[in-house]
Design goal:
Layout (H helix, E strand, L loop, with lengths): L2 H18 L30 E4 L6 E4 L6 E5 L2 E9 L3 E9 L8 H13 L10 E9 L5 E8 L5 E8 L3 E9 L4 H12 L2 E2 L6 E2 L2
Antiparallel strand pairs: 1-2, 3-4, 4-5, 5-9, 6-7, 7-8, 8-9, 10-11
Length: 206
């Protein structure tokens, strides 16, 4: 198995582990000031190929450079739907977790659960994914959010964000192989800036 395909497979495994461990049900944590807003950035020639993908149960929509095959996970009363697409550098996508009647989530705990799931199959320290430059804050609309850069000793790079929307939690993730930092950064920002919620149909920056 190539490192590229492993990145894609472990991303799915990590999302499922977040559900299985019940990470979205952890107690609330304190949130800092709003995170700085970023301008949309698109990769060269990629923006015209991005299409909207909608999670039917929540109405949440995000634009992706391809058509993902939805993966469903359900455990401990928590359900999730994973929308990931393979890219030239790795994988990109989002996850919607159903979290009714749970109050505010421990988003840092969710991030750690996701990392634990990803690293569960790591065969060496070089492939262990770690969080760095973690930021706690809120989105432009005031939803609690946690954002972190990701890296591993083998050169894997990425970003992940968890956003608490009340009855749902959204995870946005981009992961790439060594040397793909620029593409990963650009696509991650474009994905964040293309998320739409069902409340008003407007595009939000996350």
């Amino acid at each position: 198995m190539t490192r590229l395909s492993k990145i894609q497979r472990l991303s799915l495994l990590a999302a499922s582990t977040t559900v299985i461990t019940g990470g979205v049900l952890f107690p609330v944590t304190a949130f800092a000031a709003p995170a700085p807003q970023t301008a949309p950035v698109a990769t060269t020639d990629a923006a015209t190929h991005w299409t909207a993908t909608t999670d039917d149960l929540s109405g949440i929509t995000a634009e992706l450079p391809g058509h993902p095959q939805m993966q469903k996970y359900s455990e401990n009363g928590v359900e999730a739907r994973v929308y990931l697409v393979p890219t030239d550098y790795g994988t990109l996508g989002f996850v919607v977790y159903d979290t009714p009647n749970t109050g505010q989530k421990d988003l840092k705990g969710c991030l750690q659960s996701w990392l634990d799931g990803y690293n569960e199959d790591s065969r060496s320290g070089d492939s262990t994914l770690t969080s760095k430059d973690l930021q706690e804050g809120t989105t432009a609309d005031g939803q609690p959010a946690v954002d972190s850069a990701l890296s591993a000793g083998d050169g894997t790079v990425g970003h992940v964000r968890f956003v608490d929307l009340g009855d749902h939690m959204v995870q946005v993730v981009a992961l790439g192989k060594k040397g793909s930092q620029q593409d990963v950064d650009a696509d991650y920002l474009q994905l964040l800036n293309g998320v739409q919620l069902p409340s008003d149909g407007t595009t939000q920056s996350y």
